[in-house]
Design goal:
This protein has about 725 residues and is mainly alpha-helical. Helices cover about 35% and strands about 5% of the residues.
């Protein structure tokens, strides 16, 4: 049936079929068109709580102890529709929280548990997330009870932390403050594969060299959180798996000790499920029919619960006491020799040789039955890899050190994408400052801002120097994990001071002028860098005929080398920045797509991106001083000339090679300007052109200036959580 009634010939009156399928778009006819959707996700129209709802204020009214008491009770209140293993949901909620947080990746800060995105496709239907949907349904009565005072994002992560506490671990702490999204992050790049668990070879330059995995990916296959538990591409080889584990966890900001602790501690509780035929499972949540109500992976034959559950396909627990925090994983892994076997579902798993009956965990439903424990390839990697083995032996010798290391690593795993500690709320926020939180001390607000601006104006720095330095300092901000930004002035520290995108020689020269001004005035260098950009913009606006004051809030602090995790900041290096017409090298994706990626991470809209690019060109802030896109003879004045001349049909646009173009006068053929692809996309893309035409209008010159100033201030204040806490 295609929507037409065969008997009457009547046509269905509503849109149907492919037009309503997830991801369907009329733009499928033009697959090479620039897709701006990533800038439009999480539009306020999709939020049912309304524009006035403030979760950070709402969660402050939460009765945290009552909520935690309800979660502790939930851990042992087994439900008939989804019975708890051994009468405990500890393993279930550790996994739900872990698989929410575990999608985080350091390269672009996307993924993680900070938005509640586990509720939506594709993450809710990843093969590796099988049956996490049951955990969220078990949490629903608690979410229903506390309502808007607790987000799904906070509740999911808290459930795993409480589960560990119920198991007996002293956790490191917890911070509330994760706000829910209300729409799938369908534009996040999870890999190019068109098939779940497709061989990982295409993700690597060489699959035997894990460091060649495509950026920004961290998981080894489509639909996995980390590595394949059966081995590389499903072929068991613990040493090869160890290499993939090391690279994957490094891409989530974990070192070897944290990785070993998380592997051991994660497998201290719970079990794997593979006691049945995976072919009997119903579709995943996003593909299931209405009768499933968003629940997937239902076993359509037999009981399908308890001992007959199928998830990963591997079957068995890791320890003798899978609901307790203890050293059982180490005792099991290092106390026995292991051999490769097959689970009832046909998956690779390691089983102990000649295990003592008293060391075998009991059946999840019948304590009179003992079951053989298992290890995955990732577990065996901790035994065969000499570095991981040495770490594990250190843990074995000092259980308290292991517990503390794991608690800290769990806290990092579940909070890494929340940004600075100032964003954490609640009574259990640890007092200790951790280097991965990118700590920045509070800056002074007790100085004469006008006097500082006057000194900057008299400094002899060029307008382009001041704007470019302020922009470079602020553009590192990522809304994905709230890292980077102008606060801290880390542009003057390693590694940022040496990044090619920051023009090290120019940067050093500008800082040598601004740093004494900061020292003399009592302002932070972070504030002075931003103020310098503001001074230049105010001058440029005046040159265009408009008196404006760029909004400024003092109080940024200055980070130090000691409070900067230089290695983790490497991933923030701009490899391309369309705002300054910079690209370090050629990439598979186009310059304009790289511009969209940076724009989305900065939290800017498409109109804000448009006005900023046009203004930056007018100000002459291109990297290296190139003139591409500087469509004006009034460089340095904040005019809308970029848009006026881009949309002028008296011009033609001619490719001249290397991604560059000449803008020529149609009548004479004379070249007037040069341009990059980024410049011309604002005239060639129909959506961006509609914005460009707004700013090219004769009656919008002032609007252009004021919109530019507003967008500029937004970027300069990104990361100022002290203003929003």
């Amino acid at each position: 049936m295609d929507g037409n009634d065969i008997e009457t010939g009547a046509k269905c009156p509503v849109m149907h079929g492919g037009n309503t399928a997830m991801g369907a778009s009329v733009m499928k006819w033009w697959p090479n068109a620039l897709n701006l959707d990533i800038l439009h996700q999480h539009d306020t129209k999709s939020n049912p709580l309304g524009a006035d709802f403030n979760y950070r204020e709402e969660v402050k009214t939460l009765d945290v102890e009552a909520l935690k008491a309800d979660l502790r009770a939930l851990m042992t209140e087994s439900q008939d529709w989804w019975p708890a293993d051994w009468g405990s949901y500890v393993g279930m909620f550790v996994r739900v929280a872990w698989h929410a947080a575990g999608s985080y990746r350091l390269a672009d800060g996307r993924g993680g548990g900070g938005t509640g995105n586990q509720r939506f496709a594709p993450i809710n239907s990843w093969p590796d997330n099988a049956n996490t949907d049951k955990g969220r349904r078990l949490l629903w009565p608690i979410k229903k009870k506390y309502g808007n005072k607790i987000s799904w994002a906070d509740l999911i992560i808290l459930s795993g932390t409480v589960a560990y506490e119920v198991a007996g671990l002293k956790t490191f702490g917890f911070g509330f403050g994760r706000e829910d999204i209300w729409h799938p992050e369908k534009d996040t790049y999870w890999g190019a594969e068109k098939e779940w668990l497709a061989p990982s070879d295409n993700r690597y330059g060489d699959v035997s060299k894990p460091e060649t995995m495509e950026n920004p990916l961290a998981a080894v296959q489509m639909g996995l959180i980390y590595v394949n538990p059966e081995g590389v591409n499903g072929q068991s080889d613990p040493m090869r798996t160890a290499a993939q584990v090391r690279e994957t966890f490094a891409r989530m900001a974990m070192n070897d000790e944290e990785t070993a602790a998380l592997t051991a501690g994660g497998h201290t509780v719970g079990k794997c499920h593979g006691n049945g035929d995976p072919a009997n499972l119903s579709p995943v949540p996003e593909a299931a029919g209405p009768e499933f109500q968003g629940v997937g992976w239902v076993n359509t034959k037999g009981r399908g619960v308890g001992r007959d559950t199928v998830v990963s396909g591997i079957e068995g627990a890791w320890t003798s006491n899978p609901t307790q925090w203890d050293m059982g994983w180490f005792d099991m892994l290092f106390g026995y020799e292991w051999e490769l076997k097959k689970s009832p579902a046909g998956a690779n798993q390691w089983e102990p040789v000649d295990i003592r009956e008293e060391d075998m965990p009991v059946d999840v439903e019948d304590p009179s039955i003992r079951r053989v424990p298992i290890m995955t390839d990732a577990d065996m990697a901790m035994k065969v890899d000499p570095i991981y083995n040495e770490i594990c032996q250190k843990f074995r010798a000092d259980p308290q050190y292991f517990a503390d290391t794991f608690a800290r690593a769990w806290f990092k795993l579940t909070h890494r994408d929340m940004g600075p500690k100032v964003r954490y709320l609640g009574p259990d926020v640890p007092a200790e400052d951790l280097i991965w939180q990118d700590p920045v001390p509070a800056g002074s607000t007790d100085y004469d801002v006008a006097a500082v601006k006057a000194k900057i104006a008299d400094s002899g720095l060029s307008m382009a120097d001041m704007v470019s330095t302020a922009w470079d300092s602020a553009r590192t901000y990522r809304g994905s994990d709230m890292r980077g930004g102008a606060n801290g002035a880390r542009i003057r520290l390693a590694p940022q001071k040496d990044w090619e995108a920051n023009e090290p020689e120019r940067l050093a020269r500008v800082l040598s002028v601004l740093e004494p001004i900061a020292a003399e005035s009592g302002a932070s260098i972070a504030d002075v860098i931003v103020l310098a950009g503001n001074v230049a913009i105010e001058q440029a606006a005046k040159a265009a005929g408009f008196d404006v004051e760029v909004p400024f809030a003092p109080g940024r602090g200055d980070a130090t080398d000691e409070t900067t995790d230089a290695e983790s900041f490497d991933v923030l290096e701009p490899l391309a920045d369309g705002y300054r017409n910079f690209q370090k090298q050629e990439y598979v994706v186009s310059p304009e797509e790289l511009l969209l990626d940076r724009t989305q991470l900065l939290g800017l809209t498409a109109p804000e991106m448009t006005v900023l690019v046009g203004g930056m060109r007018a100000l002459g802030t291109n990297h290296g001083g190139t003139k591409h896109g500087v469509f004006t003879d009034r460089e340095g004045a904040l005019t809308s000339d970029f848009f006026v001349n881009l949309t002028d049909m008296a011009n033609s646009w001619v490719p001249v090679g290397d991604g560059l173009y000449e803008i020529r006068d149609r009548a004479s053929g004379q070249a007037k300007w040069t341009a990059s692809r980024v410049d011309l996309v604002f005239g060639s893309n129909s959506i961006l052109r509609s914005y460009a035409e707004v700013y090219a209008q004769d009656d919008n010159a002032e609007k252009f200036v004021r919109d530019f100033v507003a967008a500029w201030a937004k970027v300069m204040n990104a990361g100022r959580f002290d203003l929003k806490a």
